[in-house]
Amino acid sequence: MTGTSTRPAGPEQLRSRIAAELERTRARTALLTEAVDEADLTRQHSPLMSPLVWDLAHVGNQEELWLVRDVGGREPVRRDIDDLYDAFKQPRRDRPALPLLPPQEARAYLLTVRDKVLDLLDRVAFTERPLVADGFAFGMIVQHEQQHDETMLATHQLRAGPAVLHAPPPPEPTTRVDGEVLVPAGEFTMGTDADPWALDNERPAHRVHLPAYAIDAAPVTNGRYREFIADGGYDDPRWWSPAGWRHRREAELVAPMHWRRDGDGWAYRRFGRWAPVRDDEPVVHVCYHEARAYAAWAGKRLPTEAEWEKAARWDPASGRSRRYPWGDDDPTAEHANLGQRHLWPAPVGAYPAGASPLGVHQLIGDVWEWTSTPFRGHPGFTAFPYREYSEVFFGDDHRVLRGGSFGTDRAACRGTFRNWDFPIRRQIFSGFRCARDARPEESQP
Fold it and tell me: How far, in Å, are 258, 266, 277, 288, 335 from residue 261 at the CA level?
């Protein structure tokens, strides 16, 4: 649940929290879809992304399927559009040609569905049925819509034309963060059984033993990444895997997405505005192959998913795994750059209150961080409530990303939350940090 890892005092408190989360999430959806005119709303800005109007109606359709029909057992609002908004039946590249609901009709549909959901929320019994226990189905829908909001934010980054989104810049650094942090060998608890709104791929909690390793205290910055570019990193196959080198050549990669040469330096296009690349910000819009090549050039590697999670959650004083690096309480503006509060990553050192007990910074928010781990279920994984959320994506085709970005909402980001994507994707708000095996002398207690 989005307020705490403990369960609420009673059903009325739970109803109130759910209603607040639904309202807060829908306000963000409205902001993203009302910021553009109808032409931009229905246009496909990249073959990698849906038209914004598809995402808009899709979140309403999922809300209808799970809450109105399944939890509520009520008659369908629009059964005729189910196939149109089925993400598995309709590839993104084909969605503009579908007979989609026009913007006004899509908004009316969402309003009708939401009215039914709020009526249901007033009456639903939070029984032990897994789908409704602790309001899980409502939390799943909140997280689903927030994930699509982040996808729509990425679509905004891809659209041409003048800026339509506005936000203040992130805070300036208040502490110096550099170098590595040594994580001692030992067990920690990975995953969760305690968070009532955790999704199936975050479960179950299980013990993992890791040898000692070092991990960067902060994400790799633009300044460090520019050194890789300047040293010919994109032109040297030594640093790239065979698949990565093939992709670099075929896609003609020379720098992170949205960068261009600007005199002797680089500029970066952010939501319709060009600005000089700032060296102390985490690099963003790099694919897994680029992250892996940089790490090899730097004499390191990408962390495994388990290494990332231990650095983010493990408290050496208590031996327990926290919900977030700083503890169990929800993130605030002091902890992390989340929720579209800002429109780009914050400089390294801007969130000392969000550091882990080991002193690892900015693990939550700013940029999704690539790990070296293929996406698979935790030991004992059980698909719930449907295989298509996680299980159908398991395998070597996807790599896990962790930690969330500046575009990720707090409802869809915690120390156990798992994201995944193809290694070639970089339209997402993706960055990385490096790790390495501990040297023998570092591993001594």
Answer: 10, 5, 10, 22, 33
Contact 375, 401 (CB under 8 A): no
Arithmetic mean of pLDDT over the chain = 96
Dist. CA 188–CA 415, nearest whole Å: 13
Spatial distance between the Cα atoms of 80 and 388, rounded to a whole number of angstroms: 21
Q: Sheet with 180-183: list strands edge to edge.
A: 180-183, 213-216, 435-437
Task: Determine the Cα–Cα distance for residues 96 and 99; give it in Å rounded to an integer.
Answer: 8
Helices (H) and strands (E) in the chain, counts: 10, 12
Which domains occur in the chain, in start order?
11-158 (1.20.120), 168-445 (3.90.1580.10)
**For residue 114, how many other CB atoms are within 10 A of its CB?**
18
3-state SS assignment for residue 170: coil
Rounded to an integer, what distance in angstroms lies between the CA atom of residue 53 and that of residue 155?
11
- Tens digits of residue pLDDT in 197-231: 999 999 999 999 999 999 999 999 999 999 999 99
Q: Is residue 383 helix, strand or coil?
A: coil
Read out DSSP for 335-369? T-B-TTSSSSPPPTTS-GGG--TT-----SBSSEE
Q: What is the DSSP string of 271-307?
A: TTEEEEPPTTSBP-S--HHHHHHHHHHTT-BPPPHHH
E strands, 162-228, in order = 180-183, 186-190, 206-210, 213-216
Spatial separation of the C-alpha atoms in residues 305 and 190, rounded to whole Å: 10
Span 400-419, average pLDDT: 98
